[in-house]
Structures are given as structure tokens and as C-alpha cells.
Amino acid sequence: MHHPRRFIPLALLALAFMAILLACGGPRPPTWTDGNAYIDITSDATFLFEQDGDTATISAVVRQRSNDEVIDDAVVSFTSEAPGVVTVDASTGLLTARTSEPSSATVVATFGELTPAVATAVVAELAGGAVFVPFEVFIDFDPDTGVVLLERTPLATGLQVGDVLISGDRAGLLERVVAVDVRASSVEVITEPADLTDAFDELDVVAVGAEVEYEAIIDDDSITVLNERGEVVQRSFFGFSCKTEMDQPITVTITGSSITQKITLTPTIAIKITRTGYISATVERFDMFVEGVVRVDARSGSVEFAGGVGGKITCEREFSSFPLAFVPIVGPLGAAPTVTPSVGLELKGEATLGTVTLTGPSLDEGVSSTMGLGYTAQTGFRIISDNQRVGAGLSWPRYDASLAVAFKATVEPFLKGTVNVSGALGPYTFADFGLAEAKVYGGAELEMKMPFDYTDFGYVGPAWKFYVGVYGGLDPLFEKIEDFQKFINRVGIKVAVTGLDPELFKAELPLATSPKPAVTVTPARVDPGQNVGFSVSAAPSGRVEFMTYLLDDDDEPGSGVTVAELQTGAAGVGFTNWEPEEDDTGQYHVRAMSFQGVFGDLGFPYGSEDHASLTIGEGVTLVIEPDEIIGGAVGEEYEFELIARGIPDDVPSVTFDWSFSGGDAGFRDVTVGVDGEARTTISTSYESQGTYTLTATLLEGLEELARATASIEIEGVALTIDPSLISGGEVDDTYTFTFNASGIPTDVTSVTFEWNFASGSPNATGQETVSVSAGLASVTVAHTYTRIGSFGLVVVLRDGAGILAQATGSVTIGETTDREEELTACDVWKAAQSGGYGLTVDVWDISTIPTGAIFDIRYDALSQPDKYVIEYPIGTLVHDTGWRGSSSFDGQPEYPGGVVGPGQGEALGIFTKGTVDDFRVTVYGGEPGTIWYYDIRCRLP
């Protein structure tokens, strides 16, 4: 059965977002008369119904946390949040489906003020061959061997090879039947893993998790965790543990700190699956998101660190991991998230001497948000995000640091949570992986760099900023991506997890920042006696000095000289002029110094981080960018820009003349701009290894104005196969291949070609040593294929020191299967016919599809390697999947380039339709017995 290639496990990401921000979450044990208690669902937590009137029963008890004993006089009651779909008797737990349409209901088990437990009831259409196994007939299941033991009932004895078993969450069955052994009192069924998409034709489920609410208070002495009723869950005593990036000795004193974190979240997951066509079910919709508020209220107190610090100091306390309630998704599939929260302060400190003491900051920051991911078959994936900040933000701290001390310090209180997830089929855990982390934070930063004299070119002055923000990322997911892949495989997604941005969301709000003056000089070149204009963007209503720094012969700037000044207006901008004299001839850097506020009054202006360039009375210059290429490749094209500056105003045009040693030469006339500048772009490539020089000359008529050179170093050897592709070849015909090598180093006098035709014949491999002439070598080899099949050709070029180059080709012997396909509608997947061994060529008619439509492909090569090549227009390659299949085939010579990924995959936006009305898909079936599938979809922009 073919599986859809969809990112269905976004349900898991919903749990990620839930647990990410649930930084201080954990078990919520309510108080009972003789100890803490919790609600335990003792029946299945997921229920499947196929039609109106179907029934099942949910049961639950209240247990003591200390010993798991049942509290007999605590009677749980039940409610359905969608009684139009499924009703439930409040006392008996009898569930009754009230519709035959695919839909779902959340069933909530409650008792008093205890944290509710949640179950999911789903009305769905099972796929043909799917069999629901009630827990009553279930005896045992060994997930390692796939052996299922059932009571001998008509259901069990009627099982057939190919049936898909699905159960509730207690049994944990999502398996395909491989063999059936009927015994006297039981039935032993041999199985292999199946997916959700094997079990359902129609599924429409919306699962809303229980609201989670926690608060944690951290101060100098302890951490106290409270549940939603204000009851203490955990208390631990500690002092903040601080460390530096360099593990250097450091004295950090934190006093008066207090951090309170508050979390209220509700997760929601929605999945709709519809089977379209004979290959696979289709995910019509998938939404998952969380709604709630995450907030931090922090008082960092007084933070003092000693001089000599370098890098980041993290003062952090990590909690124990807290298990969250198991979340049933559908059938046996569910997930058990845990969260490892940590709270603390980050000090990014660098002090050259003395001691820096920072008082504050205070942070009241949070986010009220709905966030997650969604998918529809019509539009693809989208981000679900509706975020609003809450809280008063960050207060202004006080700095008690002498301005005679060069330092940089940031104080950033934060709340961080890292989520781990165990994927489960009922009681059987099959995947454990980190998923995501999130951080809510605020910060205040002050920096004072040496030199303190603003006439020195390196002076930047004081810099400060205050900010708040939130961050969420998938960084932990990629650390254990293999286990995450196991989980989504059982959902039915066989696509490798690639191309995801680890950053889920990030929002940082700058509350205030120090002024950063920016200066502009117009024009960039003047003669003595001509005016040059200075414009600045700086602090409002402040004095600005413009300073020039003369460059010496080594292009190093000297001390600054104030040549002009102005007072900015309310918008912080201003403009003035300077008229240089004859003695001012030279090249300069120009910077702006903004005197504003208390630092300016003390003589510490804010300096511009960048500078502008100014040339006074200098001659014409010519530069080449880049002026050097090291490690260039044979055959690759390189571009160079020729830039001339300082051209006199009376010269209307110039000629660029250039020559590449070992390459082309040329010239080009270019008009001079109003700023005395002219430029042009040239390019070249090199066919052999070596060191080359580009020489460029700037001419006015026959007069040379300037000259420049660039150095190019080309490495590597190029190896090609001619022909590199043969399709539809004949058995017992002889084919001739030529292997050409170029760019061979001059000190190599002979090389050896080694080849492998991977045909299985005695002469499939061979080698030949030949002489090198002018960096070139060539060998011609003939080969006869004695059987049909797809074969890889691998050629290796060696010298005495090792491999110089490698090339691959592909040969298909036997008839090519030619087929015609037609696509008539967009925004739905159209399945091609499946295929097998050999070469299959499908030509798709898209004449009814509008121009501008975007095309996607999804495919399933299963385990035996196959390759998909798409051309549009026919003859123009737009996508090559490479060989896809089991990694056990990787390295075999018949698969040149290796097996680059698992059988399942997809490629989006492979081409956009123009005026041509057909495209071609060529599928290479690599092994006898292989079978493959693919679907095509167009999307309207």
C-alpha cells in the first residue's frame, strides 16, 4: 500500500509548542484527604467508531500518588465536549456515536478540583482491510518480533494476510498481517509495522488538550513551583550556579534576585485525511497550535563581577524533568512529553580591570499567543501565529561602573524550557527524542570600549540598549533526528526531515538604544577649494562634530581633526559643508561624533560605527574586485568588476582594456558618472590547473590613466564520460565510451583510468595507464551488456599519489516503457501509474493547466533504489532526485553518486508552466523486483 508523503507529525510539534513554553510544567498532584491524588483512565483513552449508534465504554478512577491505590469513594464523572458527535453517560461512561460523518469529540474525566484527564473519541472510515481489534480479544503483543496473540474469536480467525490491525491505546496495535496461525484457544498473528494512513480512508479529528497552568518563584534561596490552585508542587534550596564559556575562575555575586514565571496553555491538534485514488490517503488539513499566556516577572537585584572576565557568564538553575499528561492522538498512537525547564540570568561580561556592578534590570514581560503550524492540500504549509506582548517590559537599571574602566556587560533574566518526547503505540515506547526549546527573556547592556579619546579612529563611545523578547527553536530535534524520523514514519510520513529552519519563532523588541550617528559625504572626491557636503543622522537636538582622519601610505588613519560641526533638529538629522584647502590633499576617513545626554556632557560622545571615504585632489585609481582567487576550480566561470575612481570632470568616457594570461583579452568603452567613477564587469573560465594573472588598464584615448592586476589560482582536475547516459540499449550490442581528463598538474606525466561498468560480466572492471600531454589524457573503452537492467558506470582517475578525479554515468539496457499521462486540475495530487525495473518514461500533457502554475512531485521508491528525473521543457533538466532507497545499497557501483536518501520524498516548486504544454518524468528502476510510485501536483500562485 502506498503511503502519502506528508508532514503529519506536526501534531507532535503542537506538543512541542505546548511543552516548549511550559517551562515549569510538571505533574499537578491535587491535595487529597490522605495525600495527593490524580485521575487515571483505566480503559482505552482513544475510541474509534465507524457509524451512528456504535458504542464503547470509558472508565476511570482516582488514585493516590504515593502508592497508586484506588480511592474507592471518589467517583469520576464524564462529559463530552462535542455531544453532536459522541455522547457519554456521566456516571457509567457509555459512549455512543451520534453521526456517521468523520469527526471527533474530546471526552473529559473529572472529579472535584483534580486535574481533568482527557480521552479522544473519533468517528472515522477505516480503510479496506483495516480491522479494529477490541482490547477484550487481545492477549499479548511483542513489538520486537511483531507477534500478536489474540483470543480465538470469529474476528481473529477471519484475519487475512495484508489486513491492518488497529486498536485503542492499551493494546498498541498498528500492524499489517504477514501470517496467521489458528490454534486451539488462540490465534497467533505475525505482523510488520503499519501506518495511520494504512488504517483510515476518512479521518477528521480535532483534539483539544487539558489546560495547563503553573507558576514558579525563584529567589536567592529557593525555587518554589505552584500548581493552578496555588499549592506547592516542588521546593528546592540553592544558590545560583554560574559558569563562563572559558571555564575561567570568576566571582559573581547576585543579591536581591527574584524571578516569577507563569504559564497557562491549551494545545489543539486537527487532522483530516481523505483517500483519493488507489495509491495513498491524502491529508486535506492538518492544524496544530497552542493558545495561552507565558509570562516572566524578574528582579535581578545587584550583580557584581570581577575584572578580567571574558565571554558569557550563565547563572542558571535547571529543574528536574517534569512528565506531562500522555496525549492520545488517534487509535494507539500518542506521545508522552516531558519538559526540562531552567531559570536564571545571563551575564555577557568583558572587563579589562576593576569591578563592574550593575543594579537591575527589572523585567515584566510575556506573550499571549496562538502559535503553531498548519497544512492544507490546496495551499501547503502555513504558520499559525497571533502573538501579543503583555507586561510592562524592562525597567531602566542603574550602572555603578567607572567610565575609566573598559567593559561590556549585559544582564538578561530568562525562562527557558527544553522538551523531550517519547512516541508510543499504547504501552510501547518506540522513539525518544529532544524536540524544541523556548526562551522568554529581557536584557540591559552597557559597553565602554578603549580608546577613550574620541580623536582616535577606533573610538566608538558608550553603547547601551534595553530589550525584551521570546525565542523558540527546533535545535534539540536535530540532535536526535533518527528517533524523530521513527515517530513520523509510524504516522505515515516517510519523507526525510530536511530543509526545516530550526528557528520556530523569534521576536525581540528594543525598548531603548544608544544613538548611532551615521555620516554621508557628497561627493566622495573633490579638488581643493570645492565644497564637500556632510550629512548626519544622530541623536535629536544634539551637537555633532565631523572628524577627518588622513590615511598614511599604508592606508592607516591618523588622529582625527574636527573640520565642521552642527546642531541636529528634533528629527536628529543635519547637513553642513566643508571647503578643503590645498594643504588638505589626500585620502580620508570621515566620522561623526554626537554629543548628547550625560555621556556627552562628560566628554564621551557617541561615535559612528562606520565611516565615509573622501578623496581630496588625488589622481585616478583603478581596482579589480576580487583582486585574488585562491583554490579556483577548472571549468568554473569567475566574474571580476573593474572600478575606476577620481576621473576628472572633463573626461566623458574611458576605455577598460584587459587580458587574462592563458585566456581571453578585450576592451570596453564606458561613460564616466557624475561622481568621477566608471565600472564594468568581465568574466572568464580556465580549463587547466595553474596560476594566472588578470591585467586591466584604464585609458583615455591612447593615454593610460591607471593600471591594476589580480591573481587567480586554479586547482583540480576535470574528468568526463562521453556518453554519460544511454537509455533503451540492446543486449549484446557493444557500446564505446571515452573518458577525458583535463587540468592535470604539470608535474604529472602519466595517469591511470580505472572503470567499473557494474554489469556483472567478467570484463566489467578494468584500468589503463596513459601519458599526459599539456594537462590532458584520454582513454576509449568498449563494453557489451549481456542482460537487461540499469547499470551505473564509475570512472576514477589516479596518479602515483592518489585519486585525482571521479565521474559517473548511467546505462539502461532493455526496452524503455513509454507512457502518456494527463493533468487537468490544480491543487490536488494526481497519481501516475506505478512502475518497476528498468527505464520508464512518462510524458505529461498539461495543456489545460494555466500558464504560471507551479509544479510539485512526491514519490516513494520504497527500499530498492530508484531515481526520478524531471524535464521541462522536454530536454531541459529541472530536477533529479538521485538514487532513493535503503541505505544498505549505498556504495554499490550500479548506483553512481550513492543512495542519497530514503525512498520517500518530495520536491516542491520544481518548475513553473510557460508556453510548453508537456513535461517528462523519467524513472530509473534499479533492481529486479523493485516497485515505485509518484504523484504530480500543480498549484496556482
Task: Describe the structure using short key phrases.
941 residues, disordered N terminus, 57% strand, 74 strands, nine-stranded antiparallel sheet, mainly beta, Immunoglobulin-like
- How many β-strand runs? 74
Helix count?
6
Helix/strand structural class? mainly beta
Approximate helicity band: under 10%
Report low-confidence residues grouped into runs of 5 or more.
1-31, 398-403
> How many strands, what sense, and barrel or not for the largest sheet?
9 strands, antiparallel
Task: Write down the overall mean pLDDT.
Answer: 77
- Gyration radius (Cα, Å) is 36 Å
- Give the N-to-C terminal Cα separation: 32 Å
Which geometry do the CA atoms define? flat
Strand fraction: over 45%
Number of domains: 6
Q: How do the helices and strands line up, and which of them pair or pack?
A:
Layout: H1 10-20, E1 31-32, E2 35-41, E3 46-49, E4 55-57, E5 60-64, E6 77-80, E7 86-88, E8 94-97, E9 103-110, E10 117-123, E11 125-126, E12 130-133, E13 138-142, E14 147-151, H2 154-157, E15 164-167, E16 174-182, E17 186-193, H3 196-199, E18 200-208, E19 212-219, E20 222-226, E21 232-237, E22 241-244, E23 252-255, E24 258-276, E25 280-299, E26 302-306, E27 312-318, E28 322-323, E29 327-330, E30 333-351, E31 355-359, E32 362-376, E33 380-394, E34 398-399, E35 407-425, E36 428-448, E37 463-473, H4 475-479, H5 481-491, E38 503-513, E39 518-522, E40 525-526, E41 532-537, E42 543-550, E43 561-567, E44 573-578, E45 586-595, H6 597-601, E46 606-607, E47 612-616, E48 621-625, E49 628-633, E50 637-645, E51 653-660, E52 665-671, E53 678-685, E54 690-700, E55 703-715, E56 718-722, E57 725-729, E58 734-742, E59 750-756, E60 765-771, E61 777-784, E62 789-799, E63 802-813, E64 816-822, E65 830-831, E66 838-845, E67 854-860, E68 866-871, E69 877-880, E70 883-884, E71 899-901, E72 904-912, E73 918-925, E74 933-939
Parallel strand pairs: 3-10, 12-15, 40-47, 49-55, 57-63, 64-66, 70-71
Antiparallel strand pairs: 1-2, 2-5, 4-8, 6-9, 7-8, 9-10, 11-18, 13-14, 14-17, 15-16, 16-17, 18-24, 19-20, 19-24, 20-21, 22-27, 23-26, 24-25, 25-32, 26-31, 27-30, 28-30, 29-30, 30-35, 31-34, 32-33, 35-36, 36-37, 37-38, 39-41, 41-44, 42-43, 42-45, 45-46, 45-47, 48-50, 50-53, 51-52, 51-54, 54-55, ...
